[in-house]
Each structure stands twice: as structure tokens, then as C-alpha cells.
Design goal:
The protein has six helices and seven strands; from the N terminus they run βαβαββαββαβαα. The chain is of the alpha/beta class. Strands 1, 2, 3, 4, 5, 6 and 7 form a seven-stranded mixed β-sheet that branches.
């Protein structure tokens, strides 16, 4: 007799990640983990997102036995500078001004933790965005219309943010929104969940 398929849990409060996971047509629950997301001294952006993705999954492990927990974290990087979620209008304008005319890399860490076996799969999926050269008035108007204050890099690519870009480069456009579905389906397959069901 085979064991039943474990529950799937998205360790996130992000409505964007929930919408992305809905694309896979899987039943899942979601819960927000409570972790410290501060960057450690000497930690690279890639190391940061992979660690936080894993910590988000681990934070909920004790509460959810027999569960596949998805943790994800994202930062935007210009050179060595990390752009997180702006939180304020002023910070969003500052971030988009810095991104104007630049190639920005979005690093999304992903972890799939099987709390039944203790196995965790972790990866970082990069996605690159070439920004148009933006005028200050454009930036301010965009921020006021879309209010991207809870988005790394200060834009919503699934919305009006697409007009800010000159070119996109990466293997999975879902990564830019915050959940790399191509990698996730590979992780799920390794756990015996092959899509479509």
C-alpha cells in the first residue's frame, strides 16, 4: 500500500506566490513563517536567498508533519547592491531611479522540504531585467499608480511594471514574480509528484 500524498504548504503570505502556485493545479495551504530576514555579514545575495528560503520552510516544519513545505525568498541586485522591498514611496522611487538604464538581476531562492523524511531541496534561480532609461516623472507616476511597496525592486512585472523594461532574460518568467515554477516542478517530481496529475 502506498503512502498518501503529503500535504503541500506554501510558507509565504505573498498573494503573488499563491497565484503562481495555483497555476500547477495542486491543492495547497499557506502560512506565513516568522523568521529574521536580515543579511548575515559576508553573505552573498545567492547565499542569502537560499538560506532564507530554507529557513522559511524549516520555521513551519514542527507544526506540519507529513508535509511538503515550499519556502521562497527574492532579492533584486544591481552590481553588489541588494534592493529589497522598498516599504515607502520614497524608497521605491530611489530604487527605480537606481535601476533606470541598468541590468538588474533577480535572485529567487527556493526550498522544498519534506517533513516526513527531512529531505530538503534548495536552489537559486536567477532572472535578468534590462530597464529602460526612465524619467523621474515616469518613475513617480508608476509608483503612485501601482504602489509596488511590498515588491523587491519596486515593481510588479505581472502588472504595469512591464512597461519599465527593455528586455527580459531567464528560463522561467514566474521567477521574476517570486516563485520559480520550473524548478519547483523538478523538486516535486523528485518527491514523486509528477505534473500534470
Amino acid at each position: 500500500m502506498t503512502k498518501p500524498t503529503p500535504t503541500l504548504l506554501l510558507a509565504s503570505s505573498s498573494p503573488f506566490r499563491r497565484e503562481l502556485l495555483d497555476k500547477l493545479n495542486l491543492d495547497f495551504i499557506h502560512q506565513s513563517p516568522d523568521i529574521d530576514e536580515s543579511r548575515r555579514e559576508g553573505e552573498s545575495p545567492t547565499e542569502l536567498v537560499m538560506r532564507l528560503a530554507r529557513e522559511k520552510a524549516l520555521a513551519l516544519a514542527d507544526q506540519h508533519p507529513d508535509t511538503l513545505i515550499i519556502g521562497s525568498d527574492q532579492v533584486a541586485v544591481i552590481g553588489d547592491r541588494i534592493l529589497g522591498k522598498p516599504g515607502t514611496r520614497e524608497k521605491a522611487i530611489e530604487q527605480l531611479s537606481a535601476a533606470s538604464g541598468q541590468r538588474v538581476t533577480f535572485l529567487t531562492g527556493l526550498c522544498l522540504l519534506n517533513t516526513r523524511t527531512g529531505r530538503s531541496q534548495v536552489a537559486c534561480d536567477p532572472f535578468h531585467v534590462q530597464f529602460r532609461t526612465l524619467r523621474q516623472a515616469q518613475i513617480e507616476r508608476y509608483v503612485d499608480i501601482e504602489q509596488p511597496l511590498n515588491c523587491a525592486g519596486s515593481f510588479k512585472s505581472e502588472g504595469l511594471g512591464i512597461v519599465l523594461f527593455k528586455a527580459l532574460e531567464g528560463r522561467d518568467p514566474n521567477t521574476l514574480v517570486g516563485l520559480p515554477l520550473v524548478v519547483l516542478t523538478e523538486f516535486l517530481a523528485a518527491e514523486g509528484i509528477r505534473l500534470p496529475l
